[in-house]
Amino acid sequence: MDNTSAGAGFSGPGLPSAYFSPASSSFSDFVRAAAPELLPGRQVSAGAAGLDVPHGTTIVALTFAGGVLIAGDRRATSGNLIASRDIEKVHVTDEYSAVGIAGTAGLAVEMVRLYGVELAHYEKIEGVSLSLDGKTNKLAGMVKANLEMAMAGLAVVPLFVGYDLEAEDAKHAGRIVSYDPAGGRYEEYAGYAGVGSGSLFAKSALKKLYDPDADEEAAVRAAVEALYDAADDDTASGGPDLVRRIFPSVITITAEQGAVQLPPERTAAVAEAVVAGRAEHNHHRAS
Amino acid sequence: MTMPLYASPEQLMRERSELARKGIARGRSVVVLKYAGGVLFVAENPSTTLHKVSEIYDRIGFAAVGRFSEFENLRVAGIRHADLKGYQYDRRDVSARALANAYAATLGSIFTEQLKPFEVEVCVAEVGASAAEDQLYRLTFDGGIFDESPFVVMGGQTDPISTKLKDVVDPEHDLRTALATAIEGLRATATSSNGNGASAEADQIKLEVAVLDRARPRRAFRRLSGAALEALLPEPKGDEPSGEEKDGASEKGSSGGTAEKE
Question: Per the record's keyword annotation, is Protease included, yes or no (chain A) (predicted)?
Answer without folding.
Answer: yes
